[in-house]
Amino acid sequence: MALPRAPVLACHSPAAWWTKPCPAGVLSLPFLRSVSSGRAALWHAIRLAREARDALSGSATAGVLVPTYHPRTLIAPVIAQGLRADFYPLTASGLPDVGALDAYARLDTCALVLPHFFGAGRSFASVRKWCTTRGIALIEDCAHALQGHAGERPVGHWGDYATASLSKFSPAPEAGLLGSAEHRLPRLALQGAPWRDEAKVLKNAVDYWLLAREAEDSLSGLLQRTEAGVVPLPPLEPDPVSTLAEALQDGRLGQVHQHAAWSARLLAREAGSAAAAARRRQHFATYAAALTPLAALRCPVPVSADGAPYVYPVWFPTDAMGDTAYRALRGAGAAVFRWDQRWPQTPNIEGDAGHAWSHQLLQLACHPTLRADQVERTAAAVAALARHCL
Ligand SMILES: Cc1ncc(COP(=O)(O)O)c(C=O)c1O
């Protein structure tokens, strides 16, 4: 059993359910609506942006600007509404080059989606200005950054709309938030979740808790073999939730018109927990201590001591090195992600960091279910792989 890639229920979870979380960030936005997932939040944000733009311009909008580096769940809410995904490239700092963005926008563009990649809150000031000047809504995707500061403002306060995925910060299997600092949000007219969903959420939470107790990894073995010069490369199992059909219509996007289950909303209250955020910062610091001395292993975003980091990003310099490290780490049971399943129409744009990241960038989980020794073993194995490959 590999290490869990998302937080699971813990003894301290119930304490967080009854404590009102109020960290600066998405949870402190004045206008907030609970939805069934981060994808559902994106779907509603895009719909609201499109309706506002159509009402102003009197003509139908058809395009949404999206980054070339993405999970498919970020693109599916655009395609599912019959809209065009217009891909924009990223600089090596994980932001668009504002001077070049006009080349990707069209007259019928209604919104630009920009995530705080890896949970490092960044100032979106220049993108905010670009969007305002052109009447394009900025959708600030906070799936990775729920709390903390993003430059001059708290996370979630740059966008016309902010979207969040609570399943990444709590044991809730699915739950999301749609928020805004500026716009009073209309009622979303969502239906209640069926009772069978309530039972399923609770059963899953307990099952994952039991599985996490038995989690094992072979990271020490990987470290030894890598240092001896032999990196084991098991084949990768296909990711069960990233096929195109699933991303579009497995019923998970179908739940955009449904509330998150009540039990999921209760579990999701842990997302604002100060104790969980502190543990994330601790894990992030462990990775940083082991990996920042390796100069060739670039960390594309500034290391932040703020908020609740989602993952620690490590960027191997070539696709081959990224493949080796990812396969070896997954095979040894590490809690690691890679966004290598890009939307099929994603273009290859020269000099685009997003294209390189899809194979070269690994995201090491920081969630609080991981124990300190598991994070230390992961960091040591990544460092050994880097020394072997570089
Ligand atoms: C940047 C980003 N946006 C949106 C989503 C969708 O969130 P959810 O899984 O809650 O639907 C994800 C999920 O991985 C994500 O990483």
Write the topology of this structure:
Layout: H1 13-17, E1 31-35, H2 38-57, E2 63-67, H3 72-79, E3 84-88, E4 109-115, H4 125-134, E5 137-141, E6 149-150, E7 153-154, E8 161-165, E9 176-180, H5 195-213, H6 219-227, H7 244-249, H8 262-268, H9 274-291, E10 311-315, H10 319-331, E11 336-337, H11 353-360, E12 361-365, H12 372-389
Parallel strand pairs: 2-3, 2-4, 4-5, 5-8
Antiparallel strand pairs: 1-9, 6-7, 8-9, 10-12, 11-12
Helix pairs in contact: 2-3, 6-12, 9-12, 10-12
Bound molecules: pyridoxal-5'-phosphate.
N- and C-termini, Cα separation: 30 Å
- Counted by DSSP, the helix tally is 12
Structural class, please?
Answer: alpha/beta
- Runs in which pLDDT lies below 50 for 5 or more consecutive residues are none
Helix content, binned percent:
25-40%
Order of strands in the sheet with the most strands? 1-9-8-5-4-2-3
**Ligands, deduplicated:** pyridoxal-5'-phosphate
CATH level-4 homologous superfamily of the largest domain: Type I PLP-dependent aspartate aminotransferase-like (Major domain)
CATH class of the largest domain: Alpha Beta
- Beta-strand residue fraction: 5-15%
Return the CATH topology of the largest domain: Aspartate Aminotransferase, domain 2
Question: How confident overall, as mean pLDDT?
Answer: 91
